[in-house]
Amino acid sequence: MIRKCLFPAAGYGTRFLPATKAMPKEVIPIVNKPLIQYGVEEALEAGMYDIAIITGRGKRALEDHFDVSYELEHQINGTDKEACLTDIRRLMDRCTFSYTRQKEMKGLGHAILTGETLIGREPFGVILADDLCDGYSNGVMAQMTRIYARYRCSVVSIEEVPQNQIEKYGVIAGSEIEDGLFMISNMVEKPGPEEAPSNLAIIGRYILTPDIFDILRETPPGRGGEIQITDALLTQAKRSMVLAYKFKGRRFDCGSVAGFVEATNYYYERMGNGG
Fold first, then answer.
1. Maximum CA extent, the chain
2. Which domain, by its residues, includes 10?
3. pLDDT of the residue at 43
4. CB 8 within 8 A of CB 126
5. CATH assignment of the domain containing 217
6. Is residue 255 part of a domain?
7. Residue 116 covered by a domain
């Protein structure tokens, strides 16, 4: 039903300097798999096989990861190391990958608008790779596609966050129409604790209808002088309907060192202590 997923991946990853001076933060591994590969696997599980990636300068490793490495594959051919490439080969066989560059860092809204040429006029998913999600039995994006199938409107994923962290997120207010599903009435980008309309924060998973591109074009710069997807979604919510879904699963903020370490430990234990 939704076949395209957009990955904004043009940021500098400054919280991980000096590691990200020459390496995209999206290819930093959690155990032995790059962050962005977890995201692409989640997208494919949800039926999204057209993968659109917004890149920038110094991000060539993203394209190389989802491509054949003839020298490497020749070197490990016939050895037990070949099995290490099973998952990435499956993604390469089942997905198509397209890329475009975001020439200036003007916010997430601008990054999504940059992807219009890859997406066209159809609904699409958005995954921020540094929000690593374990949806347990079903990935978060697969959960969200089921919401979209019933309501045919934009859907954002949310979770409750502590009050002292609220200013890191876009925060929603709305009426609960089903258990864990809210019709949005207000959204505020990175509010102070006194401004926050709730403790329900948007995380890096979206399903967007294509009219969001027209709205983004007319959205003025917001907080931080950037084009905020939160502002565009609020406009969309006022014109029609936007839903917020409290996903089932666990999220790790791998854009922070603490979240990255937590995720590494979690997935290492899941692998059976690396076995």
1. 61
2. 4-270
3. 97
4. yes
5. 3.90.550.10
6. yes
7. yes
Q: Is the pLDDT of residue 191 over 60?
A: yes
Is residue 215 in a domain? yes
Query: Cα–Cα distance between 59 and 15 in angstroms, integer?
Result: 17
Q: Let me know if residue 275 belongs to a domain.
A: no
* Mean pLDDT for the chain overall: 91
Closest-CA residue to 142 (of 210, 212, 48, 233): 48
Single pTM value for the model: 0.93
Which residue type occupies 109? G
Task: Work out how many domains the chain is built from and give that number.
Answer: 1
CA dihedral 88, 90, 96, 100 (to 10 degrees): -10
Residue 52's DSSP bridge partners are 6, 98
CA separation (Å) from 81 to 121, 250, 265? Answer: 42, 31, 23
For residue 156, count CB atoms less than 10 angstroms from its CB and return exposed for 0-12, middle for 13-18, buried for 19 or more: buried
Per residue in 43-90, pLDDT tens?
A: 999 999 999 999 988 888 899 999 888 788 878 887 878 887 888 999
